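This section describes the prediction task in plain terms. A model, or a person checking by hand, is given the sequence of a single protein chain and must write out its three-dimensional structure as a string of tokens. No templates, partner chains or ligands are provided. The sample shown here is typical of the held-out split.
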Amino acid sequence: MIAPHQGRRKRKTQDARKLPRYRRRWKVGRLFAWLHNFRRLVVRYEYHAANFLAFVQLGCAIILLRRF
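The expected answer:
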């Protein structure tokens, strides 16, 4: 009898890179957590999508500038 886990392949990388999958997902989740610190992004006051996108980009720029 063959064990259930034999014959299965594990995908250890994402996009054929050496970086494990969970690390990229963690980075994206962390970015969204940081963006939730900006109240204007959490409660969407903007009527137009372009204005909301501009505030998201501004929030990302502020996070990036704080990092450096």
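For orientation: The mean pLDDT is 77.
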